[in-house]
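JOB MANIFEST
job_type = single_chain_structure
chain_count = 1
residues = 243
[input]
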Amino acid sequence: MTPGIAAFTLDSPHNRNALSVGLVNELTAHLNRAAEDPAVRAVLLTHTGDTFCSGLDLAEARAGTGLTAEQLVSLLRTVVETPKPVVARVTGHARAGGLGLLGACDIVVASPAASFAFTEVRIGLAPAVLSTSVLPRLDSRAASRYYLTGERFDSAEAARIGLITLAADDVDQALEPILAGLRSAAPGALAAAKHLTTTAARQFFGTHASELAALAARLGDSAEAKEGIASFLDRRFTREKES
């Protein structure tokens, strides 16, 4: 660990770092420990493989054992409300709920290898819960386009519309002054500054989280979503088998 920086790695290659119940519980526990550790100035969230996070674990969802809307709300709220800044290092793909995680982070730096998409509409869902962390940051016209079409976009576009902080050819080089600045900050002042910068997100959670969680649960129980999830998983299984 870099002094003052608690680094956590999403490392679940079998499901492309999807938000499974286990991964979310582990990440939440790590964030809570970092929040209580006086030696930690900030959290660095990174990943293994070519995917930062593929969204919800749809295999768990189909089995009825997956993350609930309330659990996802809780994770995103934890990232937003933890007094330590959370920085994401992204050198791979982010989809659906993974974009909610990025929206909750305070600073996000992504490489040209990263790509992004709100893919929910293609499987009978909508970007409901993740909107709690994403909509306070995102350009409204861009939200309309990418929510409605599910199109993929690159890191330069993600920075332009406010989803990430910076697109950089060399992510680690770009992160050096950011992490150095966080390490040199006084902890009380750092927590106060984060509280100021998350005002809109915290207000959005307070106003809309329950409504959006209910919408996500209702859509997840629909025949359209169940058919879409099953179709997606069957296609993925076929691709994996052929490769």
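[summary]
Strands lie at 5-10, 42-47, 51-53, 86-90, 93-95, 107-110, 115-117, 153-154, 166-167.
The radius of gyration is 17 Å.
exit_status = 0
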